[in-house]
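Structure, all four chains, one model.
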Amino acid sequence: MQQSLTREEKRKIKLDVILRNAAKAFMERGYYKTSLDDIARMQNVTKPTLYYYIKNKEDILVKCEEQTCGRINAMLDDVMAEKLSGFDMLHLFIKEYIKIITDDVARCHVRHRGQMEDDVLKAKSIENHKDIEFRVREIIRLGIKDHSVRDCNSTILAILLFDSLNGITSWYHSDGKVSENELIDEVLALVGVGVKG
Amino acid sequence: MQQSLTREEKRKIKLDVILRNAAKAFMERGYYKTSLDDIARMQNVTKPTLYYYIKNKEDILVKCEEQTCGRINAMLDDVMAEKLSGFDMLHLFIKEYIKIITDDVARCHVRHRGQMEDDVLKAKSIENHKDIEFRVREIIRLGIKDHSVRDCNSTILAILLFDSLNGITSWYHSDGKVSENELIDEVLALVGVGVKG
DNA sequence: AATTTATGTTACTATTCAGTAACAATATAA
DNA sequence: TTATATTGTTACTGAATAGTAACATAAATT
């Protein structure tokens, strides 16, 4: 008998629901103020059931990170494949990055990255972000080389840029006053030409 | 017999040491992974002694906040008293803000603001930051009026700026590769003229 | 249909830790 | 010197909660 979804597909969907609900709760109440019982209740299951999908509480953060970093890196692959000036690449990256991080799982990752209790996982998380930051620094350096970007400290610029972009996760909601396009335009204008009148 | 320090002065100093040590621990290990026993041990006292200086664990965050917001608002008073263009005021604000938040107590506040469990304290903390953000928006609006700042959405700009500046607390250390002056210059250049080549 | 594998439950353990009660010592003031 | 306020300690309670063992059921495979 043919099922609409295989076991593995169902499993993947259930894990995804867990991640999404957990991420939302972590963002609203905080990681330590959200118990696994709370998360289980959202799924209408009991706590031990969660352990069929995750190794432990921290593993939720790890899985949110894997999902989000995967998306960001794929996006960076696309951006860097285009034949653009460094500045235009940076422009495109910012636009796509804002689209990606407007999502509970991504927001959860951004807020909790590098905060794992397990030292190995923590180191891996920091490494994951360093890799992404390095790729953006590379874009900036390309821009400096082709003179589309002003000569500056690419390391500091990349960090300042990421802090602004990641900060968006804690205030921007797609149903609020500011539209996604208006937000993207303001960020691009600030990065592009600054604020001088 | 005349003492070098009055009781009240000694008390204030001890509270300050508690805040400083707690703030440092919270930044290194995180709020929930740092117990009051840990903090007490740093002072070479026992946990109940802390309760002579603080109401409860959360009160440490509140006191770090009061101290830091007090400094920031005093600084804003000074900045706004100067006869400067909006852009130059913003410039000065950024410079002074970076100097203030390079300090464990301020870093602790920036990282934990708005995360209190007590609803009243949480609301107050959010309000405190809103007030400061409002004052910076006012500076931006002044700049737009006198044409020293490009016409833009002052709300979004203020938030993006604060995220960049507050982000500094989690990566910048005065003993690292980047000097405070270099950091300030890069931020001012980014905000001032952007990154276009 | 029988067997196995995946998915779920109830009931429990073990640990951590904020906060407190009761008591002790020390410094200041009368 | 004696009385009082301040600062500290030891020893405990109570609550929360991550993770597990043992058991139950449903679904797929043979």
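Chain A has a mean pLDDT of 95.
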